[in-house]
Amino acid sequence: MRIPDIAAGAKVLALGHYQPAHVVTNDDLAKTMDTNDEWIQSRVGIKERRVAKDESVEDMATIAGGKALAASGLSPDDVDLVIVATCTLETQIPNAAAVVAHRLGIKSPGAFDVNAACAGFCYALATASAAVRGGAARNVLVIGAEKLSQWVDWTDRSTAVIFADGAGAAVVGPSETPGIGPVVWGSAGDKSEAIEVKDRDSFLHQEGQTVFRWATTALHPVALEACARAGVDPSELAAFVPHQANLRIVEAIARKLGADKAVVARDIVHAGNTSAASIPLALSRMVERGEVSSGGLALVLGFGAGLTYAGQVIEIP
């Protein structure tokens, strides 16, 4: 038995993202349900969100993944594993990863989907890092893509004002030094009913207060542990990119983390909650706007249905 070559580390080589063109503002929602701009902003911090019209999860994932691959300088032949984090496929078979890989011209890669809801991208990123470091893959395309609009009751203001569509992607490859820190992940299955779709004929249901209390009390220790395992003090972080669940949650965790020098992602204001897409989408947009610099350290922290959570420190590409 031979052991494959093992990389010293893994890192994010490049990022990419995609958002649908159709914008839904708070005023738009106020025309169809009992809500208004002030009510929505005061509770979740969202001004507008993007909603896919004709695009599928696979369509958005392909565009975001293609942008990340182009930015990495690699060819499709250089990728041998594709992972798509999503919980909103219209059908469960076939998986999105194989479809996306084929559309991008990636020949015969390993391909699978991850459903850890809003923590999905961080789970997929950790899996990709382990695959590269263990010699199971050379380069991995990791994508978070969601079309939550097809699972939301657009007459229910408790969910319709929050969720949105989009995709974000990262290419993970080998590195002489670690560029993706150890993952801290876990779950709170006793609270699984707090966010759920009961059956095929149901819409997404969320117990907002339960999720808010859990997120604002249980997750900052996870963030601190992710920093500790990476050997990074929060003061060294250039960016903090948590799942864009709710602006109040984002800011509460950021305060408790104490990363005073970090740029905190607040993509939710204009993008809404895009579940597994939110972290790569937010980070890619931060890089694109020049808000963070290559080589800096970012803490990413995903959390959501399950309830699941995961976080790690990464080097910004």
TrEMBL record:
Its job: Catalyzes the condensation reaction of fatty acid synthesis by the addition to an acyl acceptor of two carbons from malonyl-ACP. Catalyzes the first condensation reaction which initiates fatty acid synthesis and may therefore play a role in governing the total rate of fatty acid production. Possesses both acetoacetyl-ACP synthase and acetyl transacylase activities. Its substrate specificity determines the biosynthesis of branched-chain and/or straight-chain of fatty acids.
EC number: 2.3.1.180
Stated name of the protein: Beta-ketoacyl-[acyl-carrier-protein] synthase III
Keyword annotations: Acyltransferase, Cytoplasm, Fatty acid biosynthesis, Fatty acid metabolism, Lipid biosynthesis, Lipid metabolism, Multifunctional enzyme, Transferase
The keyword Disulfide bond belongs to this UniProt entry's keyword annotation: no
InterPro entries according to UniProt: ACP_syn_III_C, ACP_syn_III_N, FabH, Thiolase-like
Pfam families listed in its UniProt record: ACP_syn_III (PF08545), ACP_syn_III_C (PF08541)
Catalytic activity, as annotated: malonyl-[ACP] + acetyl-CoA + H(+) = 3-oxobutanoyl-[ACP] + CO2 + CoA
Metabolic or biological pathway, per its Swiss-Prot or TrEMBL entry: Lipid metabolism; fatty acid biosynthesis
A molecular function GO annotation: 3-oxoacyl-[acyl-carrier-protein] synthase activity
Species whose genome carries this gene: Nonomuraea maritima
One Gene Ontology cellular component annotation held by this UniProt entry: cytoplasm
The keyword Transferase appears for this protein: yes
Region ACP-binding: start-end pairs: 244-248
Residue ranges of domain Beta-ketoacyl-[acyl-carrier-protein] synthase III N-terminal in the record: 112-189
Domain of life: Bacteria
Taxonomy of the source species: Bacteria, Bacillati, Actinomycetota, Actinomycetes, Streptosporangiales
Active site: 118, 243, 273
Residue intervals of the Beta-ketoacyl-[acyl-carrier-protein] synthase III C-terminal domain: 227-316
One GO biological process term: fatty acid biosynthetic process
